[in-house]
Request: fold
Amino acid sequence: MELPDGLKALLDGKNFATLATVMPDGSPQATTMWVDRDGDLIRFNTAEGRTKPRNLDRDPRVAVSIYNADDPYEAYAIQGRVIEKQHDGADAHIDALANKYLGSDYPWGTPGMVRVIYVIEVETIVAH
Reply:
């Protein structure tokens, strides 16, 4: 699905998003996170072993909300699904996200941490 220009601008900017995944018992799990995009696909980065990857490896359905940090009344609610999981380039990607949000490389890495990029294909968008 083609993303509207306003949503692209929010994803390209320094705006936090909230990702909701589905827990094994069917309950929602939400996490605030850094995001970017590759064309009309939304991307985020996490580490193996956390709740998000376990949930997404089992059920690829997601909901994402994002709002403009400078004008919270500009917001989007998104539903979609993970279509790709990438380990290759994930360390560079988390550094790029950290530079976008913090102005420096990712400072919280630990020995043995395995980073992963998840790619979301958007299915529905509601602008607020």
